[in-house]
Structures are given as C-alpha cells and as structure tokens.
Amino acid sequence: MADLSVNFAGIKAPNPFWLASAPPTNSGYQVQRAFEAGWGGAVWKTLGDPIINTSSRFAATHFNGQRVAGFNNIELITDRPLDVNLKEIYETKKRFPNHAVIASLMVEPKQDKWHEIVKKAEAAGVDGLELNFGCPHGMAERGMGAASGQVPELVEKQTMWAKEAANTPVIVKLTPNITDITATAWAAVQGGADAISMINTINSLAGVDLDSWNTVPNVAGKGAHGGYCGPAVKPIALNMVAECARNPEINVPISGIGGISNWRDAAEFILMGAGSVQVCTAAMHHGFSIVEDMIDGLNNYLDEKQLASVEELIGRTVPRYSDWGNLDLNYKIVAKIDTNTCINCNKCHIACEDTAHQCIDMLTSPDGNKYLQVREEDCVGCNLCSIVCPVDGAIDMIEIPNGPPMTWNERQAAIRQPIA
Amino acid sequence: MHMNRMKDRSISLTDLASNFLEIEPDLTAKEAMDEANRCLYCYDAPCITACPTSINIPSFIKKIASGNVKGSAKVIMDANPVGASCARVCPTEELCEGACVLNDASQPIMIGNLQRHATNWAIHNNAQLFKAGAKNGKSVAIIGGGPAGLSAARELARLGFDVTIFEAKEKAGGLDTHGIVSFRLPQRVSMWEVEQVESLGVTIRPNTMVGRDIDPEEIMAQYDAVVLAVGMASVPPIGIKGEAAKGVYDAIELVESTKTPPMDTHLIGKKVVIIGAGNTAIDAATCSVRLGAADVKMLYRRTEAEMTAYEFEYEFAKQEGVEFRWLTSPVSVLADEDGAVKGVECIRMELGAADESGRRRPVPIEGSEFVMEADAVVRAIGQTRYVSLIESFGLTHRWGTVKVDLTTFQTSNPKVYAAGDVIFGDGQGDAMVVTAAEQGKQTAYSIYEQLVGSGMAQTS
C-alpha cells in the first residue's frame, strides 16, 4: 500500500483526488458526501457576490454511443449567499479536519474586494484559496473570471491583492482561453501565487438542434457560449500542465484539471507535474463513488511500480517533454502487422493509402488467405495505422536502428558551423 | 452461459478429455474492454441486489475498464470466496444479468464473463488478495470443504480464527471441484480458490471423514465452534426392479469421473437413458454425450413445464443432441444374461390433480408399458442426505435438512453452525453455489459475533 497523501503547496490531503470548484461542490451536504466517499479534497464552488443562474445550463457531446465525451455548461459561480457557504465550509472542515477544503474566490478586480473575501473565507477555516480567473461565460462579461484571467497584468495584480490578505496558500486557477498559458502562469507566480491550477473550461457551444435550429443548450430559444470540459479536453489540459511544469520560471506546484475520469488519467497528470488533480465531469456523470477506483487503482499502480508514495510519481515525465526542435530526426520506427492477431478490417490499409504514405499492401497468400503487409522502406512511422487498428497487438511500431541522433536544433547549429 | 459464444461442439471419440475443455471461451481483452465500457455503472444497481453475495458489480466492471484488474478481482473475491467458480456456474440469467437494466434497452452486460475475466487475471498472476487477521485465540472446525465450508473458512481466517477443514475427499472444493461438468468449470479454477483459502493459514485435512476417521465428540471437544457444511450425499436408488444391473450409474459419480483423466470409454457409441430432469440430470446427459454416447435420452414422468432444470441448461442439452421423453417413468431395468443393462421398461404417464406442492401429479396410464433400448442407465433423481452424520452431532433436522436459525446459522446445538446444501431443502434456502458461499460468509460473521464480540466483523 503506497502513501497517497499529498502536501500541495502546504495544503495537506489524504490523497491527490480533489473535486474541482463546480456544481459537485455547491454545498456542505455535497462536499461531506464526497469526503465520505473518499475524496481527499474539494475546491468549493466559487464564492463571490451571489448571481442569478439560467434554467437549462448543461449540455454534453456524446460520441459514437458513449455518453459525455465532453461537457458544456453555462452555470455561473455560487448562487447561494456568502454567509451560508461560509457556515457550511466551517461545519465541513470541523467534521473532516484532515481533508482539504479550498475556497474558490471571484470578485471584481479591486484590492479591497479581494482583501474582504480572502479574510472571510479564511475565517471559516479553509486550508487554501483558489482564485477563479477562468470562468469563461457570464462573469467574464462583468470583468471577472476569464476576462481578468486573459490579461497577465490583472492576474498578477489580483494575485498580489489576495496574497496581501491571505495566510493560507493561494492557488491561481488559469483559463485555457489564451494563446500561451505560461504567460498568465508566470504572471500568477510574479503576483506571489503559491500554486497554480489548470485548466478552467474552454469556450464552447455543445451543438445545434437540427429540428428547432436552437443552440444546445438554449435558454428560451437563445444560446451563449459556455465552458467545455470532460474527457475530450484532457489532451489540451495535459499539455498546458506540462508546459507550465517544464518552465523553470513557473516553479510552483500545479493542480491538474481537465477530463480526469479515472486513476490512469490522474497518474498521467501527476507524471506530467501535477501535485494534485481536480475532477468534476466524471463525478457528475457517475457520482462520487468513482473515487474508490481512483484510489485503489493508483495504489495498485504505485505498488506495481514499486513506489512508496504518490509524491515520488510527480513530474517523472516532465524531463521528457521538450520543444519540437529537440526531437531526434534520425529516430525511426515502422509499423509491423501481426497477421495472426489481425482481423482483416483493412482500416490500416485505407487510412495509409488515402491519408498517409501508401505503404500497407493488401496481399493474398498462395493458399488464398488475404493479409496486410507494411512496406517498411516506405513507412514513415506516423502511427496512423496503429491508431485506427481496432485490435490490441495487431500493429506494433518497431524501432529501426537509423544512425546517431540528430535534432533539428543540432542540425541547424551544424549547418551554421563554419567548415574547418 | 452464452450459447452464441460457444466453441465448435463436435465430439471427439478418440480424445474424450478434449470434449471436456471449457466450452465457452474466455473473453478476449478487447471483448472485456468493450463490454466493461458498456456497463452504465448504475447507482444502487439491481445486479448487486440480485447477487446472493452482493458483489459490487459496477465497481468491479469499472475497474476492468480502468485497467485495475487486480482491484477488480479483489472486489469479486472479497464478496464471494468462490467468485471464480461462480463466474462460470452461476445461473446469471436468473441473477445479475437477469437484473441488468440493459435487458430491455439493448443486451444485458455479460457480468459472468467479465467476472471470469477479472478472476482469470488473479489466477494467472497467482495474486494473493487477502491477509489472515491477527489471531483472536479461537478455533473453528469446518466439516466439508465445499463452497460453504471454504467461504466460511476464508472469512474466519481473515477474522483471526484458527480454522481446520475436515475434507472427506482427497481434494477440497466440494461440488466445484468434483461435481460441476469440466466444460463449464475446470477443476483448476476451484483448486485455486482452495489454495487462496489455504494461503490464509487454514488447515485442510484431506481424506478425513468425520464419523469414520475422527469422532464428532473429539471435534466438539477441541474447537470453539463447528460448521457443518457437508452438502448432500449420493443419488438414491430409484426403487425399481433390476437397478443393480451392470451399467447403472449414479449421476453425481458419473460427472465426478469426468473431472480428472483418464476418461471412462465405456459409453462410446452407447445408448444412455437418464432418469430425472433436474440440473444434475442434464449434467449427466451432456457428460454422456461428451463421453461419446451415441444416443442420450432423458426420462421424466412430468412434462417440460414441471422440469426443475434451468432454461439455459435445457436449451444447452437440446443443442447437444439430448432427447427428452416427457411423461415417461421407468418401471424396471432390463439386463442381459451377463447382468448388463439392455433396456428400460417404461410406462407412459398423464398429469392428474395437483399435489401438495402445487404441481400436477403424474399418473401411470395402464397398459402403456414399452421397452426402451439402453446400454446404460443414469440415476439423477435428487440426492440423499448425510443423516447419520447429522444425527451423530445430535442436530435437529427434517429428512436430512438441518434446521438453522437463518440469521445466525446456528443449529439446534448453538455451538454447531450449518451452511450450504446441508441446510437446503424443506422450504429452506437455495441450492446454488453462490448461495452456499453467502451462507458460509454469514456463518463466519455470526461465529465472530458470538465468540469474539459484537459489531461489524472487519476483515483485511
């Protein structure tokens, strides 16, 4: 049994699995149920001046029969009075002193507003604060959320204001609706952030109803962009976490958010530098009990890897993430088809033939059996065939010795070198 | 069982053992992943309620989907110490799969096969899933190492008891090891479950029949509690003339003979008549087919509607080529001059008024006697009870069904508990392996409560 407990920027939790600031953490009742189910922490649904929500708020993208590949919402921050939330935070913390309770905060970009809400949240006994600079809809139109999170100067300044009043660690939650997330991450660090978390949701429209021509979702026949999350956004989030993790000037812990649905996703974020992970969509789809397999699965995985604690896993893949210019141009892999495992769907052939490099031949053996074969000399090792192959183990990408390593950057440097 | 997933059913007459290889293949990795991802992960799932051992089915399926197969096997085996066997023998159509909410929407999840997939992983990796508890100083004797006995032993060991199983046969596992057709449940699966129990420090004393090799009094004196889990005994005589002829078999013994090589070659090309129409009778019939019999008929004095075999078993037997002769009752077994079976004299029946069980009573049609040719006859009309053993412990019983308090599993002697087939019958319980497993588990918790302390038994 590995030690799953984490100390994230000074916030201690029995495990790295936290609920993200979202509908599942709207009330003390919910957060306490989550802790009973095993969640190690919860970021309370964003506190601020109560808002009015619309009716009809969520929509999802289903993909080929699997429900909720992606999830879209136009819900805003908490619609409950601040003092009610604070009272429930206090009660929750009292009942679960060892679990992490973090208050997500959003106020107008004014120093006194930040001072006031930070003090109130801390008085309720929270373990940390998360500044919501990411909510992409509604609040942004009022100059908060993503509107301030897209301007590095505002991120820095507001972080500083929060830090002026805060005694607990301050996490800055970043929006992905920006060209380079390291710019706002760096600004947060400049403002004194103890940690950063990412990603908030991505601007999205879930769909259009082909019968009514309404947007999905719609409010009385009218739609507005929402925020996208769920399994579909994982690769985007993972890259953003990784980009921040490998940037030496962003040297604060990262809480990974975005499409994490099971222990495997969590382990990937942790390997990519996350010190804790936050989950919302998967819990909204299946309930709080999913955390049981997250804990059990991560535990068995760490045992298998002979790691005594989850802290030992953090960031192990970060050194392997770099710029394209540092990739070895001489590295060569080719596809190999195992005809015993192949079920002859020919998807690899047509993918290669129509859209890649025309190197998978459809052949017939002397005894009349059809089979597929890769012409290795023409294969560029793009992976496409193995991606579309529906059967595990039918296509392997095999490494071929191909001379000493040479990256693009090394190549350019060599070209610039005067000939002696 | 999923008929559409069954392998080629051609019977080899030269390699009989090959006829007894598992007939439904394991799920491939892809099948398992596709199926696991199809599970809805229902809340308060009806499949859990339908499982006598309350396995958290959505949880173990989710773990298959997440790649945590060890965790999956643990969820299964935690709730059911013979969960690998049950994956293969449970009438899932009547239990978990029958309750799956997808029955009406599309197809139910193949829960049994997914359970088999996860437990196969544990078997192949020889995973040690559980630990013995800290010793509590108490000892328990378990008589009978079948599903109920093993299940009680496993939980008692986890709760810190010193456990000894007295097993009459050479190998423990009971019905799972000896009595279920190999093409449904290979013996190695049951033996792995036995090993899992032994690895918790449980002592199994094989070839030790209580009453013959050790006295009940000795056991009663040496242990703090006794669990009687002896199951049921052999098939009784039908009570007709000529039954002692050569070539008359006991269905249970016939099935048992096919569990380990070498296979009996006597039935190759023969005509076999099975008397009875329960699940054991079907097993005897399908085993006869797989032992090379040319013609297998089942005689039943009632009709298809009254037969006690599961629907899928009946369907399977028909597909194996077994013929059914309804409303037909044996009158005598006919033998040749060497004393070997040459036929069965039968009489046709009709259904009369309902008897006390509510089923219509079969009545012979006078003058309808006829002879059915046969080279072998198999008795499969239920099982007798270990009455003298039960009485040697002084336990209250009715026709060999030991009376228990169904909440504590205590018999008329509070120091003696009973679980499994020994308490099945007379309106009490159910004869499934999975029921026996649950009773064994509950018996362990009851013993813990009585001997160690109140409150929930906590296992590790």
Automatic annotation (TrEMBL), chain A:
Organism in which the protein naturally occurs: Domibacillus enclensis
One of the record's GO cellular component terms: cytoplasm
Function description: Involved in pyrimidine base degradation. Catalyzes physiologically the reduction of uracil to 5,6-dihydrouracil (DHU) by using NADH as a specific cosubstrate. It also catalyzes the reverse reaction and the reduction of thymine to 5,6-dihydrothymine (DHT).
Cofactor(s) needed for function: FMN
Summary of subunit composition and partner proteins: Homodimer.
InterPro entries: 4Fe4S_Fe-S-bd (IPR017896), 4Fe4S_Fe_S_CS (IPR017900), Aldolase_TIM (IPR013785), Dihydroorotate_DH_cat (IPR005720)
Lineage: Bacteria, Bacillati, Bacillota, Bacilli, Bacillales
Annotated EC: 1.3.1.1, 1.3.98.1
Keyword field: Flavoprotein, FMN, Iron, Iron-sulfur, Metal-binding, Oxidoreductase
Pfam families assigned to the protein according to its UniProt record, in alphabetical order: DHO_dh, Fer4_21
Residues annotated as domain 4Fe-4S ferredoxin-type: 333-362, 370-400
Enzyme type, top EC level: oxidoreductase
Protein's recorded name: Dihydrothymine dehydrogenase
Catalytic reaction(s) noted: (S)-dihydroorotate + fumarate = orotate + succinate; 5,6-dihydrothymine + NAD(+) = thymine + NADH + H(+); 5,6-dihydrouracil + NAD(+) = uracil + NADH + H(+)
A GO term, aspect molecular function: iron-sulfur cluster binding
Pathway given in the UniProt record: Pyrimidine metabolism; UMP biosynthesis via de novo pathway
Superkingdom: Bacteria
Stored PROSITE patterns: 4FE4S_FER_1 (PS00198), 4FE4S_FER_2 (PS51379)
The family this protein is said to belong to: Belongs to the dihydropyrimidine dehydrogenase family.
TrEMBL record, chain B:
Span of domain 4Fe-4S ferredoxin-type: 29-63
Xref: PROSITE patterns: 4FE4S_FER_2
InterPro entries cross-referenced by the UniProt entry: 4Fe4S_Fe-S-bd, DPD_II, FAD/NAD-bd_sf, FAD/NAD-binding_dom, Helical_ferredxn
Signal peptide stretch: none
Gene3D superfamilies: Alpha-helical ferredoxin (1.10.1060.10), FAD/NAD(P)-binding domain (3.50.50.60)
GO molecular function: iron-sulfur cluster binding; oxidoreductase activity
Stated name of the protein: Glutamate synthase (NADPH/NADH) small chain
Source organism per UniProt: Domibacillus enclensis
